[in-house]
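Exercise 7b. Backbone tokens:
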């Protein structure tokens, strides 16, 4: 029998206590807190970047409408079935993106409210385009601007969704790493 084994058998009563020494749990808690990684949140700066992106896209839409150098010319009349179908398609796509964004978890109600408010400001621009189209029925520039507005809005909403999903995935991955 080695010296270590002799020592352990001699001191067995002192070594077999059920409770750790005093202060052990406090020291252990401090070490756990020090090792925990902070939770990534969508901060104000990130929300401000999203709002700036929306503002830039709205400004570029205004420039497109004013210059009349839009994309493809659509030979349709506001009363035509083709234009109504296109309008309905884009409206349904935008509504689906709104629902997707609203379904994602946010850190606070303020962030969600601010983001949805920024998106609704784009709807104000849409209303201006509709007024222009109603004032000038059959104006291809107005119809193209309306379609381009929908396309830009969908692009912005897709970018927002991607960023929100990335933030959500990074939170999930952070939890997985801390649990391992």
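Sequence design result:
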């Amino acid at each position: 029998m080695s010296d270590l084994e002799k020592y352990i058998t001699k001191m067995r009563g002192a070594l077999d206590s059920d409770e750790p020494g005093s202060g052990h749990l406090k020291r252990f808690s401090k070490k756990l807190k020090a090792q925990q990684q902070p939770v990534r949140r969508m901060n104000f700066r990130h929300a401000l970047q999203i709002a700036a992106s929306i503002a830039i896209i709205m400004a570029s839409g205004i420039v497109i409408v004013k210059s009349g150098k839009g994309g493809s010319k659509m030979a349709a009349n506001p009363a035509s079935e083709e234009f109504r179908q296109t309008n309905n398609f884009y409206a349904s796509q935008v509504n689906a993106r709104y629902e997707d964004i609203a379904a994602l978890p946010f850190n606070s109600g303020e962030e969600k409210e601010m983001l949805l408010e920024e998106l609704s400001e784009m709807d104000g621009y849409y209303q201006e385009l509709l007024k222009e189209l109603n004032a000038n029925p059959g104006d291809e520039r107005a119809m193209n601007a309306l379609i381009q507005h929908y396309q830009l809005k969908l692009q912005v909403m897709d970018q927002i969704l991607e960023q929100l999903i990335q933030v959500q995935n990074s939170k999930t991955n952070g939890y997985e790493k801390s649990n391992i």
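Instructor comment: Confidence is low (pLDDT under 50) at residues 69-79. The CA atoms of residues 129 and 135 lie 10 Å apart.
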